[in-house]
Amino acid sequence: MSDEPIKAEALRKYLNSLVPDDQESYAKRCGTTIGYLRKAISARQRIAESTAIALDRESGGVVSVESVRPDVDWSYLRGSSKRPSRLTTLKCG
C-alpha cells in the first residue's frame, strides 16, 4: 500500500457545490461527518476504502473512488483488469 496522501480535489469541489445541510446529509449517508471529511481533505489523510466507496455511491459517481483513493487498484476489484489464468501461473514439473 502506498503512503501517498490523498488528493481529494473532486471531493472538495463536490462538497463546496452543496449547501451546508446537504453536506451534512451526504456525509451522514456515507457513514461519516462533514467535519471528518473536511479534516481529511485539509490534512490529506487517507480515507478508508469503505468510505471512498460510499462517497462514490452517494455522489452518483461525481466523487469517484479513484479520485479519493488512487492507491487502490479499483479496476482489479471491478474485474475490468486482466487477471492471469490460474493455469498460466502454475508451474509444471
Task: Describe it.
- With 93 residues, this protein is an all-alpha fold.
- It has one domain: 434 Repressor (Amino-terminal Domain), CATH 1.10.260.
- Helices cover 55% and strands 0% of the residues.
- The protein is built from seven helices and no strands.
- It has helices at residues 9-16, 20-29, 34-43, 49-58, 65-68, 74-78, 86-89.
- The radius of gyration is 17 Å and the shape is globular.
- The relative contact order is 0.17.
- The mean pLDDT is 85.
Largest sheet composition: none
Tell me, what's the shape?
globular
Q: Class by helix and strand content?
A: mainly alpha
If helices are DSSP runs of H or I spanning 4 or more residues, what is the number of helices?
A: 7
Compute the number of strand runs.
Answer: 0
CATH architecture level-2 label: Orthogonal Bundle
Query: Which CATH class applies here?
Result: Mainly Alpha
Q: For the residues shown, what is the average pLDDT?
A: 85
> What portion of residues belong to β-strands?
under 5%
End-to-end C-alpha gap = 34 Å
Low-confidence stretches: none
Radius of gyration: 17 Å
Sequence of secondary-structure elements: HHHHHHH
Instruction: Please tell me the total number of domains.
Output: 1
CATH topology title? 434 Repressor (Amino-terminal Domain)
